[in-house]
Every structure is written in structure tokens, then in C-alpha cells.
Write a structure and sequence with these properties.
single chain, 3-stranded antiparallel sheet, 63% helix, two-stranded antiparallel ribbon
């Protein structure tokens, strides 16, 4: 939000009260209009879109686009402001490209390859413009004039945010080339070794062992990993995987007992002086 002082409102009222369109307005109405104009000016100064381009005509177009968006839509967050700034730049750039494209079309001695390149750039630019408008939730002609419209816009923005910010991402470690799963937290990603890859190959040790033991069929595991049953056979053959041995608790206790007896015997030999 932008803070507006009483002095700023008074100064602006003194400037606008003599204008024709505000001549019949009451003092309260003038103060409200003055406050709106001041906030609009601060938003314009905050975004400063005129610095995006050099040409005076394009500067004017950028300011006109900014005024239009600030009038028709709710742009409050820093993220939205940055996206709007990118959007305005791309729209100005699109106008520049269209002018260039028209000049190419009028001239007969231009290479068709150059014309195709310009058309491709225009299409890519338009795609990016649509994407940014979608992120801002301003696609369409509907103006955001009340709380219900603002809420609908926020829902659209959140839906687009979910598409761009998944709860997890998979990357390749730049050091060991292993697959890494990034689990999102509120502040950053939490990295762990990926549970569904071995080296760079789709794989899960526990699932494959369940197939070998007969607990699950290879068709079941293939559905979980979204692959074919033949792929599961290939995994088993590739690494010659065998069922993980199941060690009984009695066996473990017996081994521990034997280790302890050997240790006690060695201590006794040291005390008696025997080798």
C-alpha cells in the first residue's frame, strides 16, 4: 500500500479543483479523486516503465499501457508489479516487431528467410505475453472492480502459481550425476537422494525385491513406475538382483553371543599372559 499525506491531498486538490471535469465536485469527492490520482502516480513512478525503452514514442506507449493496466486491474504485490513491467516491455517490443514486419512485407528485395525469422520472433513474443497475462490473471476484458472479482483473480493467479511451482522437482546432481529429488519447504528446497532412480535409471530397490519375492507382480510395479512389465524384467537381469536375505532374530542373537565369547576369551588370554 502507498501512504498519502494530508499535505499531498491538499496540494493535489488545489491543482484539480479548477479543471472542467472536476468543477461540480464536492470537497469530499475532490479529496477522494486527489488521493486516487496520487496513488496512481506513485504506482507509475514505482514501476518506472519509461526506463525500459529509449525511443520517445515507445516511452509514451509504455506509460499508456501502464495507466490502462493500473486503471483496469488490481496490481499490488511486488511479484505482480515485476510481471506487469515485463508484460509492458514485451507489448512495446511486439509493436516494434510488427512495424518491422510491415516494412519487410512492403519491400520486394528482402530475403524470405529474414521475414520468416521475424514472424517466428513475433509468435514467440505473443506467446510470452499471453503467459504473463495468465500469471497476472488479466486475460479477457473483465475489469476487476469489486471484492468478488479480486478474489477470482487471486484464485487464477494461485492456479497458475501451482503450475509453475510444483511441490517437488527432479534434477541431476552436477557432481555425482545421480538423480536428486528436491522437496519444497516454505523457504527453500530440501534435497535428498532420489528414491526412484539408481544411477540415472528409473528404479526402486524395494519394489523390485517385492516382485522377486512374489509379493507384487511385475505388472503392479510397472503401473507404479509407469513403465512396461518387460522393463521390470530388464532391471532384474541388468543388476542380477536377488531377494534381500531375511535374517532371523535368533541367528542375530547367536552371532552376537559368539562375538562376545571371542572377545572375552581374548581378554582372558591377555590377563594370563598366553598368546
Amino acid at each position: 500500500m502507498y501512504n498519502v499525506t494530508e499535505e499531498e491531498i491538499t496540494n493535489r486538490v488545489n491543482k484539480i479543483n479548477k479543471l472542467v471535469q472536476y468543477r461540480n465536485k464536492s470537497d469530499g469527492e475532490l479529496r477522494k479523486i486527489a488521493e486516487t490520482l496520487i496513488i496512481k502516480g506513485k504506482k507509475r513512478d514505482d514501476l518506472n516503465v519509461s526506463d525500459l525503452v529509449i525511443d520517445d514514442t515507445e516511452k509514451k506507449l509504455a506509460k499508456e499501457l501502464l495507466d490502462k493496466y493500473l486503471k483496469d486491474y488490481t496490481i499490488e504485490t511486488i511479484s505482480d508489479k515485476n510481471i506487469l513491467k515485463q508484460l509492458i516491455y514485451l507489448e512495446v517490443l511486439n509493436t516494434r516487431l510488427q512495424i518491422k514486419l510491415n516494412k519487410y512485407s512492403e519491400e520486394d528485395n528482402n530475403d524470405d528467410k529474414d521475414l520468416v525469422k521475424v514472424i517466428e520472433v513475433v509468435h514467440k513474443n505473443l506467446t510470452q505475453i499471453i503467459n504473463l497475462k495468465s500469471q497476472l490473471g488479466i486475460i479477457g476484458n473483465k475489469k476487476k472492480e469489486n471484492d468478488a472479482d479480486v478474489l477470482a483473480t487471486l484464485k487464477k493467479k494461485f492456479k497458475n502459481y501451482l503450475k509453475e511451482n510444483q511441490a517437488s522437482r527432479t534434477i541431476v546432481c552436477p557432481y555425482c550425476s545421480q538423480m536428486v529429488l528436491l522437496k519444497i519447504r516454505t523457504t527453500a528446497y530440501d534435497a535428498q537422494k532420489h528414491p526412484f532412480f539408481r544411477d540415472r535409471i528409473l528404479y526402486n530397490d524395494h519394489l523390485v525385491n517385492l516382485v522377486i519375492k512374489g509379493t507384487l507382480t511385475k505388472e503392479d510395479v510397472a503401473q507404479i513406475l509407469e513403465c512396461s512389465p518387460d522393463y521390470i524384467d530388464w532391471l532384474i537381469t541388468k543388476w542380477k538382483i536377488k531377494p534381500a536375505p531375511v535374517v532371523a532374530l535368533d541367528t542375530v542373537n547367536e552371532e552376537i553371543k559368539q562375538i562376545k565369547e571371542k572377545k572375552d576369551a581374548l581378554e582372558s588370554d591377555k590377563i594370563s599372559g598366553t598368546d
